[in-house]
Model the fold of this input.
Amino acid sequence: MHIGILTGGGDCPGLNAVIRMVTLALIHQCGARVTGIERGFLGLLTRSVRPLDEHAVQGILAQGGTILGTHNKCDPFHYFGAGGADCSAQAMAYARELGLDGLVAIGGDGTMFIANRFGEIGLPVVGVPKTIDNDLAHTERTFGFDSAVAVVTESLDRLETTARSHGRVMIVETMGRYAGWIALEAGIAGGAHVILLPEVPFSVDAVAAVCREREARVGDGGGYTLICVAEGAHAAGEGMTVRATLADSPDPVRLGGVCHTLQAVLQPRLASEVRTTQLGHTQRGGTPTPFDRVLATEFGYHAAELVRSGRFGRMVAWQDGRVTSVPIADVAGRNRTVPLDHTLLAAARALGTSLGI
Ligand code: F6P
Done:
């Protein structure tokens, strides 16, 4: 058996732990030959591959990023490098030339969308869900998320002490695209006074009122305010803050900068100074947390089991506290946002944390 592995979309901590597990399980349990495809699906067009064996995956468990490289702009069915042409036949021809019996695609919704299309044209695929955003349909957890939440939580802890010392309003912007999972969990873990999510359009007046009320409570647990805002959060009736629109990407919108948007409208309403920290890609970098290493390893093992049992066309998933799998077609191109009846939202309200409404 000859199996290819690739990592697609934005990187996140834990990718290497999956590559290691899938490789070792396929070698040890199936006697398979394993080939790494470099830079996501692009490697099938540029013919960039490398053999993966025990030596190649040694020492990578704790490494962030992906040893195979990744790409979040390459869809061979609509390849911008060739003016948007369908180059899938070229990719399939190369997969056949390599003699691949199947492919393990580790990625987010975009990668699953492309993987599903390759499955339809004859390349058997197993999917493994990754993203710091935790926003893939049909899986309650993706690896990378816990590591991102840890980075944001540590940042909130650090910013809290300086905000308190100076009596400032600190706005911390997280990633997460159209879902507020990172801001919600890290906001709670880091004790933010205000948590703003894309799912709950906020009122600037309500946020300003919280800051003013806390301004007035110097020496009484107040005097400063910590705001954790997801990049997709927006005021009611306003659009999201877009950092860039990329003409050469299947997912052209890049969010970012809502911390500055919010600062601009809050500052004139407040006596205290409003400062911003946009955490950006620090949330995607660095070593995976132990939780993410274990989850990634478990996902990798399950992916190898799906390959071993010939159950292609499925994506590994985490549901009701255990690993399972779902049809990739059910996940492709779909997102999972924070439901308005989620218990963490109720917990935040019970804490007295403002959701900006
Ligand atoms: O999907 C992961 C993610 O980090 C999002 O949270 C963020 O909006 C996006 O990727 C950033 O993408 P890029 O690295 O292309 O700017």
Notes: The chain has two domains: 2-143+288-331, 148-284. The domain at 148-284 is CATH 3.40.50.460 (Rossmann fold). The pocket of 6-O-phosphono-beta-D-fructofuranose is lined by residues 10, 72, 131-133, 175-177, 231, 254-255, 284 (CB under 6 Å).
